[in-house]
Amino acid sequence: MTSKSSDRLAWAVEALDIGPNDRILELGSGHGVAVSLVCELLDGGRVTALDRSPKMIEMAEQRNRAHAEKVRFIASSIEDADLGDQVYDKVFAVNVAALHKPGKPLEVVRQVLAPGGSLHLFSQAPGWNSPKEAERFGAQLSEVLEGAGFIVEEVRVGGASTGFEAGVAARAAS
Asked: Fewer C-beta neighbours within 10 Å, C or N terminus of the chain?
């Protein structure tokens, strides 16, 4: 049996529509559950996972030992991470509040997105009691992203089996 948390992360990873050779950046990787799901979809692609907590990175590395050739873990914020000149086809985050407002984290994401790359932000609040709460969050986040130079392509709302959740997909404006 899977946990509600795992179900929510599976919903988010499915929304990414990952290709086998994609270069993925996860912000706020936590225990590495989403990284495991992403790695199962990659065949030649790679994922970089950031988390501010060295302890979370350590636990994520342990969870993903079998995927070591596909993943790089970094204990850092997006603002301070040394990503070199790597660019990513998809950047995603689940419940990372720093990306829900204008500022340096969204600026850095714009810089590391490959041409045509996409940003996917998810919020999965089990306390949301109706899809309207998730829709409202998606609309507010869309405004923030558009103000930060992104073009919103999709707002999606997930179902009640895991609590209501919202996802916003965007691309950097030229």
From this structure: N
Q: Note the pLDDT of residue 169.
A: 95
> What does pTM read for this prediction?
0.92
- Could you read off the pLDDT of 75-101 as tens digits, one per residue? 999 999 999 999 999 999 999 999 999
Is-contact 26 49, C-beta < 8 A? yes
Domain ranges of the chain: 4-172
Q: Mind giving me the DSSP string for 14-55?
A: HHH---TT-EEEEES-TTSHHHHHHHTT-SS-EEEEEES-HH
Q: What are phi and psi of 56, to 5 degrees?
A: -65, -40
153 in Cβ contact with 170 (< 8 Å): yes
pLDDT at 5: 62
- Residue 109 phi, psi dihedral angles, 5° rounding: -60, -45
Q: Which two tokens stand for residue 74?
A: 């970094």
User: Which residue stretches of the chain have pLDDT < 50?
Assistant: 1-2
Q: Give how far Cα 20 sits from Cα of 43, 71, 89, Å.
A: 5, 14, 11
Report the distance separating Cα 79 and Cα 147, nearest Å: 19
4-172: in CATH 3.40.50.150:
yes
What pLDDT is attached to residue 107? 95
Closest C-alpha among 2, 37, 17, 3 to residue 156: 17
